[in-house]
Write a structure and sequence with these properties.
There is one protein chain. This protein is α/β, with parallel strands linked by helices and 293 residues long. The chain folds into three domains: 73 residues, Winged helix-like DNA-binding domain superfamily/Winged helix DNA-binding domain (Arc Repressor Mutant, subunit A, Orthogonal Bundle); 108 residues, Periplasmic binding protein-like II (D-Maltodextrin-Binding Protein, domain 2, 3-Layer(aba) Sandwich); 90 residues, Periplasmic binding protein-like II (D-Maltodextrin-Binding Protein, domain 2, 3-Layer(aba) Sandwich), CATH 3.40.190.10. It is 39% helix and 22% strand. The chain is built from ten helices and 13 strands. Strand 1 and strand 2 form a beta hairpin. It starts with a helix and ends with a helix.
Length: 293
C-alpha cells in the first residue's frame, strides 16, 4: 500500500486535536475512519506511529519523525495549491489564529479598500502555527509568536498589551488591572501551539502551580467562562472575542506582544508592500503621517 495524503492529514489531525474523536470532527469523517486511516499509514510504513490506550495517546519515536515529515509534505502541497489559486483569485486572504489586528482591524480594512478597491481584503481564522499560511488557506498571516521557518518572511507591524481573562464571577474581575502574581494561584489555560502565553512570563519559582493545556481560542474561552481556569492573551483577543462569562483585564508590567505579518518568501502576494505600510499605520497612525509629511 502506498502512502497517501489523506493518511498524512489524518495523522496530523489526530496529534493536533489530541484525540481521534476531535480529529474526526475536524476532518468531517467518522472516528472509525480516522482510526482506519492512521492504521493504514502504519501498515504502509511498516512501523507503529502511535501508542494508544483508553486514556492515553502519544507518538512513538518514529512517529515523531514521521509527523515532522508529514507536516512538511502537506505544507508543500498546500503551497502548490495556493500558488495556483492565487493566480485565479482577486482577493488577499489574511489568516490569524486568535485575532486579526484587534481594534486596528477595521482601520486597516478601510484604508486598504481606499488604496486597492479592486482587491478585497479577507480575514479568516485558522488555528494553526502559521495561521493558515502553511496550509494554503491564507496568502498572508498575522503572527504573534516567533516564526523561524526559513520558508517564510516576516515584517513587524506593531505591538500589543497583554490581558488577563477570568470568569466574571471571579473576585479578580472586580479589579481594573491585574498582575501575573494575581493569577498564579489559579489553573492557567495555555495553548502552546498558537497562543502567546508561556511560563517564562512569571518570575522563576513564581509561576502557576497548575497549567491546563488547551487547543484554540474557543476551548480556552469556554474553560475560563466556566471558572475552570484563567488565561493571558493579547489585547486583540479581548477586542475580537467577547464572551459571556469572561472578563478581560489589562495586565500591569507585562511585556508587550509583537505582531508580525508573514508570507511565503518565494511568493510574496501582490500588494504586500501596501499591506505592510497600512498595517503599521493602523497600529501607529502618526507613522504614516510622518512618512507623508
Amino acid at each position: 500500500m502506498n502512502v497517501e495524503l489523506r493518511h498524512l492529514r489524518s495523522l496530523v489531525a489526530v496529534i493536533d486535536a489530541g484525540t481521534f474523536t476531535d480529529a474526526a470532527a475536524e476532518l468531517g469523517v467518522s472516528q472509525a475512519a480516522v482510526s482506519r486511516t492512521v492504521a493504514a499509514l502504519e501498515s504502509a510504513l511498516g512501523v507503529r506511529l502511535l501508542e494508544r490506550t483508553t486514556r492515553h495517546l502519544a507518538l512513538t519515536a518514529t512517529g515523531t519523525q514521521v509527523l515532522t515529515a508529514a507536516r512538511r509534505v502537506l505544507a508543500e502541497i498546500a503551497h502548490l495549491e495556493r500558488l495556483a489559486e492565487q493566480s485565479r483569485s482577486d482577493e488577499l486572504r489574511i489568516g490569524y489564529a486568535w485575532a486579526a489586528l484587534g481594534k486596528h482591524t477595521r482601520r486597516l480594512q478601510r484604508t486598504w479598500a481606499a488604496a486597492r478597491p479592486g482587491t478585497p481584503l479577507v480575514f479568516m481564522q485558522a488555528g494553526t502555527v502559521t495561521a493558515g499560511l502553511s496550509e494554503g488557506t491564507a496568502d498572508v498571516a498575522v503572527i504573534r509568536k516567533p516564526l523561524t521557518d526559513p520558508r517564510f518572511a516576516t515584517a513587524l507591524i506593531g505591538t500589543e498589551g497583554r490581558c488577563a481573562a477570568v470568569a466574571t464571577d471571579n473576585p479578580l474581575a472586580r479589579r481594573r488591572t491585574l498582575r501575573f502574581a494575581d493569577l498564579a494561584r489559579y489553573t492557567v489555560a495555555i495553548d502552546s501551539r498558537t497562543g502567546t502565553t508561556t511560563l517564562d512570563l512569571w518570575e522563576p519559582g513564581a509561576g502557576p502551580a497548575t497549567v491546563r493545556a488547551t487547543h484554540g481560542v474557543d476551548e480556552w474561552l469556554t474553560l475560563i467562562a466556566a471558572g475552570q481556569a484563567v488565561g493571558i492573551t493579547s489585547e486583540a483577543t479581548a477586542n475580537q472575542n467577547p464572551r459571556p462569562g469572561v472578563a478581560y483585564r489589562m495586565l500591569r508590567h507585562a511585556p508587550r506582544i509583537e505582531v508580525w505579518l508573514a508570507w511565503w518568501r518565494d511568493a510574496p502576494p501582490d500588494g504586500l508592500d501596501d499591506l505592510i505600510r497600512l498595517s503599521r499605520a493602523a497600529y501607529d497612525p502618526t507613522a504614516e503621517a510622518s512618512s507623508q509629511g
